User: Which sequence fits this backbone?
């Protein structure tokens, strides 16, 4: 019973000791807080280094800035789905031949959007907000003795964001737009500790589950103006206030296959979402070539979260990209026929582990166009690196392919077609 008590009260989920060794996992840094929070948007900007606070498209639901969607064509609805495949190679002292790589596939995003009239556009959707998927082994000391036992630490789950975005263009020439994304962030985070040692008669498993549901809001503004016969400039900004996320935490304890405790409510755990602001700039030449630059700051340090071996620090991200477009005239006016993008980004994570900052950088390229009547595609390839091998941490080198498909058509109502 001493072992059971030790497991129940002292589940180690911070991965702070040097004794831990990585096993089969796809996301070692997802062991902390809300898991690995994904800053990517998986839309037309995936090939531009995910740069899009001041970028607009009339054929795709680009909502890096909620205000951007006012550029959509009136009375044309868009249905979009985005999927991603990722291959990762790991390096570091905890890595061996049997756990040096992983491959994963996700459906990252689904949206439905519509330009309702000359000034109002709206869209609903779903996206993966964070992912938790790790597995480590280590040794654990039994409380009240010097005996150590072999222990496995596992995590799975993640959070999803269900959102509704509304944007409004104001002024006679509709150069200024405002937008708000209202979201429900919900899901489950699961951490397990499994003591399965040859010196023990049975294995002991403790599983902690956090169930999360929280409303969250982001606002945006975008201003676009011609500055010459050839050039347009756009300035964008986004803001999201800080908020706390309170989870309902339950614990299940197993001795062998027998339940000692089953989904016992143990209280609430408080997580955090930071105050975030972003700034974007884009320059467009002849309505064909767009150069874009973004900066995003997340104020995690103000929460003053510091645990053994790790802490939350401010996150900063800078990205830039170029989009080349070819256009054609249709019954709905001038629409994009084909596009090509290149870009890059640098991201400082909100985690600092063993006094080491976690940096990520990547380069991207993408292509898109029309597949057939009403069907568009975008393909983006990304290569990058995250983490470090210092202080026995893990470095990830990855290649990621994103496929996005959009179906668009004119909205009908009561047998009449919108103009």
Assistant:
């Amino acid at each position: 019973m001493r072992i059971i008590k030790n497991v129940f009260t002292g589940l180690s989920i911070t991965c702070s000791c040097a004794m831990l060794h990585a096993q089969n996992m796809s996301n070692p840094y997802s062991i902390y807080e809300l898991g690995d929070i994904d800053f990517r948007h998986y839309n037309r900007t995936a090939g531009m280094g995910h740069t899009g606070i001041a970028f607009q498209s009339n054929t795709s639901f680009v909502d890096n800035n909620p205000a951007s969607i006012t550029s959509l064509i009136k009375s044309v609805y868009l249905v979009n789905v985005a999927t991603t495949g990722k291959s990762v190679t790991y390096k570091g002292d905890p890595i061996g031949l049997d756990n040096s790589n992983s491959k994963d596939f996700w459906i990252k995003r689904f949206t439905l959007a519509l330009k309702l009239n000359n000034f109002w556009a709206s869209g609903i959707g779903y996206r993966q907000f964070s992912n938790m998927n790790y597995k480590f082994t280590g040794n654990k000391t039994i409380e009240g003795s010097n005996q150590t036992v072999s222990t496995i630490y596992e995590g799975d789950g993640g959070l999803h964001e269900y959102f509704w975005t509304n944007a409004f263009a104001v002024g006679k020439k509709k150069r200024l737009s405002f937008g708000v994304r209202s979201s429900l962030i919900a899901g489950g985070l699961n951490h397990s500790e499994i003591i399965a040692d040859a010196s023990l008669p049975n294995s002991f498993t403790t599983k902690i589950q956090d169930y999360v549901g929280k409303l969250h809001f982001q606002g945006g503004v975008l201003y676009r103006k011609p500055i010459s016969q050839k050039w347009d400039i756009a300035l964008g900004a986004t803001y999201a206030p800080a908020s706390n996320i309170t989870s309902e935490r339950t614990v299940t304890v197993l001795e062998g296959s027998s339940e000692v405790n089953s989904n016992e409510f143990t209280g609430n755990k408080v997580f955090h979402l930071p105050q975030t602001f972003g700034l974007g700039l884009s320059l467009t030449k002849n309505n064909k070539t767009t150069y874009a630059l973004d900066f995003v700051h997340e104020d995690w340090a103000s929460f003053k979260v510091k645990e053994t071996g790790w802490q939350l620090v401010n996150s900063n991200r800078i990205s830039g990209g170029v989009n080349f477009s070819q256009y054609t005239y249709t019954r709905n006016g001038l629409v994009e026929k084909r596009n090509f993008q290149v870009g890059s980004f640098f991201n400082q994570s909100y985690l600092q582990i063993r006094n080491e900052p976690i940096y990520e950088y990547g380069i991207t390229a993408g292509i898109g166009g029309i597949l057939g009547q009403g069907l568009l595609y975008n393909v983006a390839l990304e290569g990058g690196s995250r983490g470090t091998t210092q202080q026995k941490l893990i470095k990830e080198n990855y290649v990621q392919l994103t496929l996005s498909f959009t179906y668009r058509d004119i909205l009908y109502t009561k047998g009449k077609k919108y103009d």
Q: What stands out?
A: The first strand starts at residue 21 and ends at 22. The chain is about 0% helix and 65% strand. Residues 1-19, 415-419 have pLDDT under 50 and may be disordered. The longest helix spans residues 2-9.
